[in-house]
């Protein structure tokens, strides 16, 4: 499919055109943060910096109603109560413009859990199938980026429908899927910008540097499972704020709550946070992960060891670096993984 050119001064009109057909989300600056919001002409999209939030909420909202329910007493037999349930499913077509290649890659971590032969999360799938991504290539990777350690790259197209590459005067829009071709069909031909776009991608790929081999992490993190001293040292700075989980494009845990108003109610799904002490608190008061060392071990171990062991070696981290950049005390997941790989093998008992 032919690449197209989007001049800077036509960005707003192209987004307005998309908005006529799709719920169109773009990065918008709000105070110190850059978050995804529906496009509005009054707010220029912020495409110059990496968004604070990932694109995760476009497919997996922070908070969503799964169903409403209503109790009705049988008039003839008041001891009997009927429950009327209405499922809620959002399959309105959406386009997300300006997420980064690592953001889109994050959805593959979800797919392996919510779209399996045995388990189909219908709410997730309705949005996943109807959400299209115009990813923006990273011209200059940040010092916190490490997508190339986990199989990605600054101009990776996996999961994207269009790759948007910054060039002089605008962006080269490279369709990846047929849907992507449709999204950029109205734009002008981009052939004249292709060589420049390739140079931008080559420069970004070179700038991110050599990948560190983390393939040993899967076995090594498991071997360190009972090494309390190791995990206490790695987690000593952590203040259990949960920022890392909320910003992560691959954290997929959720909680379910029923909110009842008299005889009616709504079942809500909300993001959960494994760095919170309440995450594993049981009704008895027992907590199998009572300390922040237990919780950080779980977060890192899940992404680099337990998940890969269940999903053909795929790591549940896309190297976006958000958990490093936004951690208030600079806990660095790269350092923890490397420390685990370098740690002496624990002594075998017996
Ligand atoms: S963002 Fe940092 S301090 Fe907060 S829970 Fe995560 S590792 Fe701990
Ligand atoms: S663990 Fe950190 S670097 Fe990896 S995907 Fe999540 S936020 Fe990004």
UniProtKB/TrEMBL annotation:
Identify the residues that the record assigns to the 4Fe-4S ferredoxin-type domain, covering every copy.
229-259, 306-339
Q: Which InterPro entries does this chain map to? A: 4Fe4S_Fe-S-bd (IPR017896), 4Fe4S_Fe_S_CS (IPR017900), Helical_ferredxn (IPR009051)
Q: Which UniProt keywords apply?
A: Iron, Iron-sulfur, Metal-binding
Pfam families per the record?
Fer4_22
Asked if the record carries the keyword Nucleotide-binding, the reply is no
Molecular function terms, GO-annotated: iron-sulfur cluster binding; metal ion binding
- Specify the domain of life of the species encoding this protein: Bacteria
Protein name per its UniProtKB record: Hydrogenase
- This chain's source organism reads Pseudodesulfovibrio cashew
